Amino acid sequence: MEPRILIRKDPVRWGILSSANIGVRAVAPAIRASSNGKLLAVGSRDRQHASELYAFASDVRIYEGYEAILADPDIEAVYIPLPNSLHAEWSIKAMQAGKHVLCEKPLAVTREEGEEMVQAAEDNQVFLMEAFMYRFHPQIVWALEQVKSGLIGPVRLVRASFSFDIRSHPENIRLQPELGGGSLMDVGSYPLNLFHAIYERSPRSVAARVHVTGPTSVDLATNAVLDYGEGSFGIMDSSFGLPSRQGAEIIGEAGIITLPVPFTPGNYDMTAFVTKDGQMTEQNFSGVDQYQLEVEHFAQCIRSKQDPRLSLTETLENLATIEAIYEAAGLDWPIL
């Protein structure tokens, strides 16, 4: 008889590094609402400010600085929403402290940094996953299943866009070169991630243009065409100077899947559309918290010791694609 493997049922104990807005408003509530996780502590450079932000969670420990989170033996996993330029440093420190790491996208500024993070995960036998929460939404899971099943035939073109306007906030970390800013690094990483999820490979080549304006030196807008071979392409655009907009269109030889709000649908009901044989049908999805689904998945991986859905191979290949786009556009990268 094979030995019975017992899976722990106690909730995974989380810590968060920094009082970044996405942590306060999205991920902390998601962890607290999750079925298999518990938020124990938050580390911040400004303890008083963090205490005020986390007033809704009076049971959460508030630490001064990030090191205290890593030193807390009760914490098993950390979520890292720090600026892009700090992802590698603090993820590696966390993994060396024996913590599993869910790190905001993009995982690193360069592929080389990403490889160092992956090596740290292997060396310390912990899980590391890039936090692309949209991949856990039922509409994306469904769309990828339809592509794989051949519903719309071989995919030949994917168009995806993501933008919002932050030109009136030059202090925003997304516009700071020393912090790894830029529209491609932020909203542009979503279309690239979607392309890889659909084609399951890296592009053979890319052509791109970026728009850099003002003193920031980061790309305010990026447009790229990616060649995935076999007559298959991806076309993406990202911008910090256009109205809030997003969308994705997956075009196969036999049909089209349209996702009007693929990346940040909120907790609202969503509808995807399939156009095939001259007919359009709808696929409806009830509102969910995709952040909660993400943290529950990661916690389940920790308890079951099964690899996360988003592989590190995919993550590294996407980091290489970001670098290739900047190179094709003639923008020196990284700008640090």
From TrEMBL:
Keywords, ordered alphabetically: Oxidoreductase
GFO/IDH/MocA-like oxidoreductase domain span: 145-257
Domain of life of the native organism: Bacteria
Molecular-function GO terms, alphabetical: nucleotide binding; oxidoreductase activity
Regions crossing the membrane: none
Gene3D superfamilies from the UniProt entry: Dihydrodipicolinate Reductase, domain 2, NAD(P)-binding Rossmann-like Domain
Residue ranges of every copy of the Gfo/Idh/MocA-like oxidoreductase N-terminal domain listed in the record: 13-131
Family: Belongs to the Gfo/Idh/MocA family.
Name the UniProt record assigns to this protein: Oxidoreductase
